[in-house]
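Blackboard transcription, Thursday session:
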Amino acid sequence: RKEVEQDPGPFNVPEGATVAFNCTYSNSASQSFFWYRQDCRKEPKLLMSVYSSGNEDGRFTAQLNRASQYISLLIRDSKLSDSATYLCVVKGYNTDKLIFGTGTRLQVFP
Amino acid sequence: ETGVTQSPTHLIKTRGQQVTLRCSSQSGHNTVSWYQQALGQGPQFIFQYYREEENGRGNFPPRFSGLQFPNYSSELNVNALELDDSALYLCASSLGVGGTEAFFGQGTRLTVV
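(Written on the board underneath:)
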């Protein structure tokens, strides 16, 4: 079983749509959680950290459920520029080792 | 931009050859991690260097080795290249271990033929 599992997609949505990505992780000792965005043939970039209380950054909302070991990302009012691969990432305690999911590809069309 | 630079950006090597990839960390960052990203996959942790010492290693064979220099730049060496080593190699720099954001370089795309 992979340590971090994501639906690879692709998710094809029209501009303005709301889209949700889900992710599960296997190690209950994981301490930190993130969503990264990766454009085609580019490096991953941190989109947002994920907290148990949930957090929002503009059109993006991230949620963490530690009991279910489940992370989500909600994108509202999708833009063409949101087209990318979204990587779910977890990190253990006192380590910089990032464990990535395979990524979920999003394609927003006009 | 992140301030993390990698060289070269692209490279083609023949099976069995050796390759060295380089990474300059962001100013002030003393920790460098290397990742391998195969096509259609998420990045996989290779190893990390903290203050010139290896500080954790992923599930990669010994022919993957590294080095960190006093200025905190780093090299990834791969011996006896195999076709499956074809991937995007990413380095990420951070300040200290555990808890700080890692910034990725643009990567080196290695093709083994």
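Lecturer's comment: Chain B touches chain A at residues 2, 31, 33, 35, 40-45, 48, 56, 58, 88, 90, 92, 94, 97-102, 104-107, 109 (CB under 8 Å).
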